[in-house]
Amino acid sequence: MSITVKLRFFASLREKLGEGEAMALPESSTVAAAREALMARGGAHAEALARGRAVRAALNQKMCAESAPLSDGDELAFFPPVTGG
């Protein structure tokens, strides 16, 4: 079985990857699994979400760890860390 999550990208990630999309994943997937699946696409996704890059995640509008489990219908957002000035 699979689940569908709504992906959203913000700030510089939105510029590179677009606003977002729906993505099907295997049941019992985590935030890390979603990121890996996106990086596996190659190109802009692999570059923007690469492991060496600082990328934060929010699950249903709450900050989360990459170990957070995903459920059908969740909203998963990726964004760069906020910098102040």
From TrEMBL:
CDD domains tied to this protein: Ubl_MoaD
Positions in coiled-coil regions: none
Presence of keyword Nucleotide-binding: yes
Keyword field contains Hydrolase: no
Domain of life, per lineage: Bacteria
UniProt entry keywords in alphabetical sequence: Nucleotide-binding
Homology family: Belongs to the MoaD family.
Name by which UniProt lists this protein: Molybdopterin synthase sulfur carrier subunit
